[in-house]
Write a structure and sequence with these properties.
Layout: H1 5-13, H2 25-55, H3 60-85, H4 87-98, H5 107-147, H6 164-213, H7 238-257, H8 259-282, H9 286-325, H10 334-347, E1 354-355, E2 359-360, H11 363-382
Length: about 375
């Protein structure tokens, strides 16, 4: 899969995505075993933490401390379910980008696509480095706890782990669950970010094609090639309308696939951020502060990835109308002006990534999230 190769490689490493090239029976079976093992570890971590909160926790301080990782695990499991159940639809999204009218047809469009691909890869690697650094710090603290004879995480297990074998098996399971949870989060965030920016790339390619319509016939590359892969006998603007509708359907399909991921991530971030701030305000040891500051910062960045990507799509979809208005549309025929007007009218309604009617992924929503987190933090501090 050439599109978003790095992002899908991370997806495959998480156990949620069997590479399409692995079609043999043996590779499919081996990857299925790997996926089942990963899901088992995440469910084990979820249940043991839930039982600890229900059976052991008896005060607000312990509840906020335990809920930090618990809500992150819930969010990670939601991402796993989405990836496993939405595989065919994700493949369909990639196929949409690889066939007309989204397929690239000239060097300028390839340059536009390459620029967005470089941006996606660069930001994905930066996020990978940040999240990996945070995970390594958490794992170092967990290993120190194991060496002191304690489980790496606060959980409740329905058996006696006082024997060395039980203790080490339980500890290793918890450590592996944290590792897989980190990979799940990294791969999902970077993939969603990449798929969102593919929408921006297609909108810019559409703008480029519309601008080429007004170039003089003698200009290099102005004439549409007779073997144009998306020529079907329609008018020269009708196929651009189809391209615009295809982009909108692509964004809607992407939103439908990751709708619940957006919802759980948004509200999990509110709970984690306010709980982290409360924990920092009541635990002033160096180890707690160092660990929680990095974890809280990663949560800020995690939800920012979604909101920033959604905001970019909104702005780019609105800019399409301005780009059309700046064309020499007065030189077109009446029918072509009407077709341009159809695109302009539709582009006045920006493409938005939402979760139901509650959350819209934008920088404005990100600001509201920070305000809600701070308000919840004040409530916890006064309790």
């Amino acid at each position: 899969m050439r599109i978003l190769s790095l992002n899908f490689s991370l997806y495959a490493a998480s156990g949620m995505w069997r590479p399409i090239e692995w079609s043999s029976v043996g590779s499919t079976l081996l990857y299925s075993v790997y996926s089942v093992f990963m899901v088992y570890l995440m469910i084990f971590l979820l249940l043991t933490q839930f039982l600890d909160i229900v059976l052991v926790v008896d005060n607000v301080k312990d509840f906020t401390t335990n809920s930090l990782l618990f809500v992150s695990v819930v969010s990670a499991i939601c991402k796993i379910v989405t990836a496993l159940t939405g595989r065919d639809r994700i493949i369909s999204l990639i196929e949409v980008l690889q066939r007309p009218p989204c397929k690239l047809v000239d060097q300028e469009e390839m340059d536009i696509q390459a620029r967005f691909d470089r941006s996606i890869r660069s930001h994905s690697l930066s996020y990978l480095f940040l999240a990996t650094s945070s995970a390594i710090g958490a794992l170092m603290g967990a290993v120190l706890a194991i060496l002191q004879g304690q489980l790496p995480l606060r959980v409740w297990v329905p058996y006696d782990y006082s024997s060395p074998l039980s203790f080490w098996l339980t500890s290793i399971q918890l450590l592996l669950a944290v590792v897989f949870g980190t990979i799940v989060n990294i791969s999902t965030e970077t993939l969603v970010y990449g798929l969102c920016l593919q929408t921006c790339a297609q909108l810019e390619i559409l703008t480029h094609r519309l601008q080429k319509v007004m170039l003089p016939a003698e200009s290099p590359g102005a004439r549409e090639r007779p073997d144009d892969v998306w020529s079907n006998g329609a008018s020269r603007l009708s196929r651009h309308i189809c391209h615009h509708l295809c982009i909108i359907r692509y964004a809607e399909s992407l939103n439908e696939i990751y709708n619940y991921v957006f919802f759980t991530q948004f509200f999990a971030s509110i709970l984690v951020l306010c709980s982290s701030l409360y924990h920092l305000s009541s635990h002033l040891t160096f180890e707690d502060v160092a660990t929680m500051v990095v974890y809280t910062f990663c949560m800020f960045v995690q939800i920012l990835v979604y909101c920033w990507a959604g905001n970019e799509v909104m702005l780019k979809s609105i800019d399409l109308s301005d780009a059309i208005y700046q064309m020499d549309w007065i030189l077109m025929t009446i029918s072509e002006q009407k077709e341009l007007l159809m695109i302009m009218r539709r582009s006045t309604r920006p493409i938005k990534f939402t979760s139901s009617f509650l959350v819209t992924l934008s920088l404005n929503s990100y600001g509201n999230l920070l305000k809600a987190s701070y308000s919840a933090f004040n409530v916890l501090q006064q309790s």
